[in-house]
Amino acid sequence: MLKVRATSGLAWAYLLETWRARPALFWNIAFPLLFVVGLSYIFGGGESPRVQQILPGIMTINLIAAVFFGITLHMVSLRESGLYRRYRATPINELTVVIAHAVTAAVNILVSLFLQLAVAILLFRVQVAGSIIQLLVAFVVCAFAFIPLGLLVGSTARDMRTAPAISNLLFFPLTFLSGAAMPLYLMPGWLKQLAGFLPATYALELLQAIILRGEHLADVRIPIVVLVVTGCVGFVCNGLLFRWESTERINRRGLLLTIMLLVVVYAAAFFYAPGFKAAQPPVAELPPATGAAKVLTGLTLLDGTGGIIRNGWIKIEGSRIAAVGGDSTEPPGDGTERVDMSGLYLMPGLIDSHVHLGAAGGGAASYSEFMPRRLVHDLQVYIALGITSFLSLTDVLDDMLALRSAVAAGTMRSPRPFFSGPSITAPNGHPAAVFRAVPGLAEVLTREVATDDEAVRAVMELADRRVDVIKLILDHGWLNNPYPVLAKSAFHAAVGAARKRGMRVIVHVDSDEAARWAIEAGANSLEHSPPDLSDATIRKMVENGITLTPTLAVYEGMVRSLKDERVSDPLALEWIQPEVVESIHSPDSWIAKWRNSDAALGYFSHLYGQAIQTCRRAHAAGVTLIAGSDAGNIGVFHGWALIHELELLVEQCGMSPAEAIVAATGRGAARLGRQDIGTLTPGAFADFVVLGSDPTASVHALRDVRAVYLNGKAIDRSTLLTSNAGSWTPGGLK
How far is CA 119 from CA 40, 41, 66, 100, 718, in A? Predict the structure, then answer.
């Protein structure tokens, strides 16, 4: 009881000291708030979405400063003043002093973080994506990890001459190499690897998860565990290293033990934890739309997660959604322009989560299908049909990087591009074997790997070039065309390397065995519908949160093309280039030689039927389905194919129209780890499509597009194919 009283009394004395001293109040409270305000205006322009992006980094920097310049220097100054020496004549022991400092620091740090959050919300209208309660818990976890680190330095720093130097040696690497001061995704690969050994990186990851991505604490278990273990090690070792006097020798064995324990903790996290999501590049952001803010009223809003708001309104400020409301809330009346859209339906812009932009969807009968004009045309078709984002897989990486840059610079009218670049496959595996028909194409569109080291190098190369996802291929071939498949160890090595870099992994699978490999290795998503996918594997997918992109349209397109059926869908005929459509029926089409083969038609007809059954069983079991068309394959035309895929998901797979919409909006965004697309939430990009009829009543309503907004700007659909789209010029087929 005496020790408890001594600890609480000492902690209270320290708190009074910091609250009464103006310099302490300035550095503990005022300076962090000035730091938030200053950096929010300098780097965030005072705009809430941009301030939200940098807020976790600002808070992490303030936390590091409070620990190494607050706790450390306070302890060293008290030791040099002789105050600790006087404590030795009292019942106070080392543990009492350490705990008192920890309590004082915890109160000051948590108050400071709470005030920083309040300023961000009240002054800059920052919308925290996750729960405020969970964010406060995250604050406690971060403080618990860092406070004992400051105590350790305060115990071992020799005097007030060396203490600031040590603090600076720790502050700057933790600030700049963790991604707090400079985005982690901009750093070279070896620095991203080094970040895994820094506690600040885990604190930043935890704060970003809740503030930016709206994740639950359960979604960031690894950073929480690492930070909690760091705090436990630090508090235990503080008892070994605390010194009463400056002349007292440092416990070198205790210091070595502390360093070794922390190295073990972070080495284990480095080797076994998945990579940091902060290392993933952000979506290319278009320049904001010009003009005054506007409110669209009288709408039925479908929010992208399954929610519906009747008689709703949505406010657009610049490129972002500023507010959303319904009957219970009045739309802003502060002079904001109002647009009455009564009777219409508004939903987030669609996301096609599996396309091949470089391929046309025709029969590859002419070079024009691969030329820049066709690619630019199809980008406009996506926008016209309300598809405002896409994930392109197995495409020319330089072209996609150039498109992302042009979109970000505002020099190209395009949906938001996400991409994998080349796919990773076995030597002469799918699709490299197919690409061999064009010299050099396999080397551009795939990375063929035979060993674990080659697989890891391929992943590292793509991650360093800032692709959005890693795509791996497990395909045994079809009919009488067997392909080599990635060795299991190389496949696991690739998935492990991708996860270490914080990359999402999607796997092209053609069998139950391939699906099980992907699940065991820790992949995020399976592409296509294996005909033999077992109920046991489906259960594993549900348990592990593995998504499935059925791509029914590609199976159906193959069957229609083998039958040489003419394209008759008015939507396709309206928007797709005629030469692409006619290419399917050309005698020069690659599929022409298969048209007289009953075996080929029977094989692919059976495959399509099995794909439907796989999709139905997966949906019934609760697998998260993502809408992706596989556009670019024969008969699967860009833009139109996603609308048709959604119709197939409803008519063949058994999804309701509302579920299909979520599969092409909120779920597609979540699969990419994005909170700024796919949903109608404040802070998200103002990308949406306005329909004339209710898409939850009939999926065919998606064809009734009345307006498309991209980045807050209403698009003139009538001139999309006749006006200049911008500066992007892909290399095309050389």
Answer: 10, 13, 18, 29, 45
Q: How confident is the model at residue 24 (pLDDT cuts 50, 70, 90)?
A: low
Q: b or e along 425-440 (b: 16 or more beta carbons within 10 Å of the residue's beta carbon)?
A: bbeebbbbbbbeeeee
- pLDDT above 90 coverage of the chain, percent: 53
Q: Which among 282, 358, 381, 343 has a CA at the least distance from the CA of 717?
A: 381
**CATH number of the domain bearing residue 338:** 2.30.40.10
d(CA 133, CA 151): 27
* Integer Cα distance of 420 and 424 in angstroms: 10
261 and 410 belong to one structural domain: no
Give bridge partners of residue 419 from the DSSP assignment. Answer: 392
**Do 640 and 525 belong to one domain?**
yes
Rounded CA gap, 239 and 227, in Å?
19
Residue 647 within a domain: yes
- Domain check: are 176 and 242 in the same one? yes
Task: Report the DSSP pairing between strands 688-691 and 469-474.
Answer: unpaired
Residue 432 lies in a domain: yes
Whether residues 243 and 305 share a domain: the answer is no
- Alpha helix positions (H), 273-396: 372-384
**The pTM is what?**
0.70
Same domain, 334 and 401: no
Residue 111 has pLDDT above 70, yes or no: yes
Q: For 473-502, how does the pLDDT look when each residue is reduced to its tens digit (9 = 90+)?
A: 999 988 778 899 999 999 999 999 998 888
Tell me if 530 sits within 8 A of 509, measured CB to CB: yes
User: Given this model, what pLDDT does residue 606 score?
Assistant: 95
The single-letter code of the amino acid at 29 is: I
What's 618's domain CATH number? 3.20.20.140
Structure tokens at 107: 């109160």
For residues 38 and 149, state if they share a domain. Answer: yes
Going by C-alpha positions, the residue among 145, 198, 172, 152 that lies closest to residue 61 is 172
256 and 156, same domain (yes or no): yes
Alpha carbon 298 to its chain's center: 33
Backbone phi, psi, residue 342, to 5°: -55, 135
- The answer, yes or no, to whether residue 335 has pLDDT greater than 90, is no
Q: Quote the crossing angle between the two packed helices 72-80 and 163-177, to the nearest 10°.
A: 180
Q: Which domain holds residue 655?
A: 350-677
In order of 58, 645, 665, 685, 708, the CA distances from 303 in angstroms are 31, 20, 9, 13, 16
Q: CA–CA separation, 404 vs 415, rounded Å?
A: 10
Same domain, 23 and 139: yes
Radius of gyration from C-alpha coordinates of the chain? 29
DSSP reduced 3-state for 318: coil
What gap in Å lies between CA 349 and CA 324, rounded to an integer?
16
The residue length of the chain stands at 734
Looking at the structure of the chain, the number of domains it has is 3
Would you report the helix, strand and coil content of the chain in percent, each value rounded to 5? 55, 15, 35
Q: How confident is the model at residue 40 (pLDDT cuts 50, 70, 90)?
A: confident
503 token code pair: 């990359």
Angstrom distance (rounded) from CA 700 to CA 77: 73
Q: Is residue 732 part of a domain?
A: no
